[in-house]
Amino acid sequence: MFRGRYEHTIDAKGRTSLPARYRDVLSSIGERRVILTAPEWTAFEERLAKLPQFDRAVQKLKRIYVSGAVECEVDDSGRILIPPTLRDHAKLQKDVLWAGNGKYAELWDAQAWKQHFDTTDDERQQISARLAELGL
């Protein structure tokens, strides 16, 4: 399980360190690579593969998400190289934050992460109502 928040930086070459605890998670399952894009990627691709291949919505979904997925090796220093296209798409600047989310982790621009938590009373009430609908 990926838990916790870890602040890191991206160097001039586009590399950032994967948090040591996340490397431990990967090591425990014999993995030295991460897939940068959607969460729980393998299960997502398996579900996509079972959908009708000629359905236009499925085709578009595959073109957007599967083509955008990037496998990244974790180097001996515990870093991964984030391709420029993904850095641009996620608007990742120098300061980033890894956020554990259970079965996957998210990589955020540090400033965007802070803004994400700036919520209004109305937004908090909407979230609370939705969580109640879900039984939480």
The number of E-state strands comes to: 7
What would you report as the Rg, rounded to the nearest angstrom? 17 Å
Strand content: 15-25%
The run of helices and strands is: EEHEHHEEHEEHH
Mean pLDDT: 88
* Uncertain ranges: none
Q: What general form does the structure show?
A: globular
Secondary-structure-derived class: alpha+beta
DSSP helix count? Answer: 6
Give the distance, in angstroms, between the N- and C-terminal Cα atoms: 21 Å
Strand order of the largest sheet: 1-6-7
Give the helix level as a range of percent.
25-40%
What's the main sheet like?
3 strands, antiparallel
What do you see in this structure?
This protein has helices spanning 20-28, 41-49, 56-65, 84-89, 110-116, 121-133, and strands spanning 5-9, 15-17, 33-36, 70-73, 79-81, 95-100, 105-109. The radius of gyration is 17 Å and the shape is globular. It is an alpha+beta fold and 136 residues long. The two termini are 21 Å apart. The strands form 3 sheets. The protein has a 3-stranded antiparallel sheet. Strands 2-5 form a two-stranded antiparallel ribbon. The chain has 6 helices and 7 strands.
